[in-house]
Amino acid sequence: MFSKILYPTKFDELSFPILKSLTCLKSAGLKEIVLLYVIDEEAIYYAKESGLPVDIEQIKQSANEKMKEYLDYLKSNELSVKTKITSGKVVNEIVNEAALENVSLIVTGRHKRHMIDELFIGSTTDGVVKKSSLPVLVVKYHTIRMIEGKLTEQFCPNLFRKILYTTDWSEHSERAKKYIPLLYNAGAREAVIVHVMEDGSKEENKKKLNALKQEIEKTGFKVNSNLIQGKPYKEIINLASQEDASLILMGCHGKGFIKGILIGSVSQRVLEYSDRSVLIVK
């Protein structure tokens, strides 16, 4: 499930730390990473319309030079790497290249306004999550600490340290559950499982949750189970923070009246408002 990853990048300040956090997926079967840089045709169009000089060949050359650091790092970790530079509408290019390369996962990150501000979902990440039928890992967990009197930002060094798995007992949650053993192989040892109750009896949900806990424990995890009542996205976000989870794993219903435009409201809100990385499985 993690054998081949597509990693689109704009070479922003978080891109390389995110890439470094992915190498532990080798133990979960990762063999190849496709690095993708998309020349945004809309940005090029508006630049030309504004009378700004645009040199496509120079943009490609600059992208190739920046990719060298990424390429060298991945090769030093004994991973196969393919680099691609395309042009077009960014979201469409990412989704199309993911299908063309037959990848098993798309990894994208959040951008940030400045160091002390929150990370936020960019339009590209949002569009990829909505349009792609593949699992998407959105990496955004970071910490800001005082070290030797200076405010220092540290990117999550162990993305798969502790996972929070959310379930509503649907087929989408079942699909997401299949990734739990792979995350164990990637280094995760603690799992927090949660069901936010909206309907059904408390006793029935307790039985299901206990059975799920025992199932995941057989994989090797230390498991903490939680049955909560409330608004699902708020409870999931709060629990992830309380438990200091490094990753939220959840299925996506893909609900909405226009296919490919709306994803499930709970996963959409968790993705937007949580400060933790999220793996969305459809």
TrEMBL record:
<protein>
    <submittedName>
        <fullName>Universal stress protein, putative</fullName>
    </submittedName>
</protein>
<dbReference type="InterPro" id="IPR006015">
    <property type="entry name" value="Universal_stress_UspA"/>
</dbReference>
<feature type="domain" description="UspA">
    <location>
        <begin position="1"/>
        <end position="140"/>
    </location>
</feature>
<dbReference type="Pfam" id="PF00582">
    <property type="entry name" value="Usp"/>
</dbReference>
<dbReference type="InterPro" id="IPR006016">
    <property type="entry name" value="UspA"/>
</dbReference>
<comment type="similarity">
    <text>Belongs to the universal stress protein A family.</text>
</comment>
<feature type="domain" description="UspA">
    <location>
        <begin position="202"/>
        <end position="282"/>
    </location>
</feature>
<dbReference type="InterPro" id="IPR014729">
    <property type="entry name" value="Rossmann-like_a/b/a_fold"/>
</dbReference>
